[in-house]
Amino acid sequence: MGWWKNKREVRLLVHLLLPLCFHWIAEEMTKSVLVDVTTDALCPGHSTCEEAIYLNGLQQTVVGIFKMVVLPVLGQLSDDYGRKPLLLITVSTTIFPFSLLIISKSKSFVYAYYVLRTISFIISQGSIFCIAAAYVADVIDDNKRTTGLCWMMGLFSASHVLGNVLARFLPEDNIFVSITLLIFCSLYMALFLPETVTSAPIGDQRLPFLKKAFKIVEQRYNSMRRAAIIVISSPALKCISLISFFYELGMSGIDSVLLYYLKAAFGFDKNQFSEILMVVGVGSIISQLLVLPSINPIVGEKVILCAALLSSVAYALLYGLAWAAWVPYLAASFGVVNILVKPATYALISKASSSTDQGKTQGFVAGVQAISSLLSPLAMTPLTNLFLSRNAPFNCKGFSLVCASISVAISLIFAWMLKRNPSNQTSENDEENIEAPLLSS
């Protein structure tokens, strides 16, 4: 009950979470349909499409390359210029690729969609969460921060459930009305989202353009270097970075091929995809909104993280070794627990960082995850195509998912080595050397 006594905290969270819910609903409405849309456009009349799988792998690789730089920079810019402008940029990029599919679902428009969606992913994928987590850290006291992050991730799951319900029952041609929700999200943030960070002062406008540009690049480099030093010098943040790297290496690879694997192996379509995603979403709402806030004060983030990673290993193995069409539904049920990896990770990063470095550290760890997103499709895409083809070395269509589970198991080992209660260890010397704001005079 003490949580709701501070009306200011609740109001600030509502102005963040309400538009994000609409954004997540809109994106989830399209997820289960895109597999059918891309397969029908690129490989008409076929249940599997190598071109679509390779395009998804290529997209993930390109996104991973650029996210390694973009994510840390966006996190640092949110520390300097505020959370609101960066959130507005990231949430609005999704509008343009989906607009193309409203116009036409032909092959040429699907290719154009992939190009714009790749740019959108570079800017928004991962950055929305790390900037939103930094916003939560700005407005909530330390002792309630984990609960706030749990609510954010719980509403994320609730939005996914509602998005999948709409995808399940709406006709395919009408699903892309989700663009209306995406536009509403951007407008709401522009009008109502308050700023929680004092913007950096504008530098000397009389500087020549080239010198000003060079100064921006130089200060961005120094800021990124500082973020790297903060993480490397902290045993807790360094361990969390390794956990995030191996976890994302396995799970991003699974996410990139899972729906195409289920379509090829079991003939799943939009309806089955929506049902599986709803199984995960409904359980995730309960685990994040009710279970996690209740057990976190008792067991701590480390125990929750280890349990979630163990569940992720089982999740990957069951999908990879699925022998019947009902097994993916059983595997999806483990998502109720493994969804807790993200809020536990965000909370651990937040606790191990100073108040002035929230955006930097969240962005740096997100950049580490981007490296994993770059590497995973290089192995997962050809491996998945090989075992789905007639030339597979042996009969195990989900062998690539089994391999991904090994990476998740490595992250579990690092999580077990993590200290139970990592805390901010910023020294006085670090406080004195906090970087000057970007473009300060």
Keywords:
441 residues, mainly alpha, Growth Hormone, Chain: A, 17 helices
Poorly predicted residue ranges: 425-441
CATH superfamily membership: MFS general substrate transporter like domains
Question: Could you name the CATH topology?
Answer: Growth Hormone, Chain: A
Specify the structural class. mainly alpha
Mean pLDDT across all residues, rounded? 77
The tally of structural domains comes to 1
- Shape designation: globular
CATH architecture: Up-down Bundle
Helix % is over 70%
The total beta strand count reads: 0
Distance between the termini: 46 Å
CATH class membership: Mainly Alpha
Organism: Coffea canephora (Robusta coffee)
Keywords: Membrane, Signal, Transmembrane, Transmembrane helix, Transport
InterPro entries: MFS, MFS_trans_sf
Transmembrane segments: 86-104, 110-137, 149-169, 175-193, 227-247, 276-296, 303-323, 361-379, 399-418
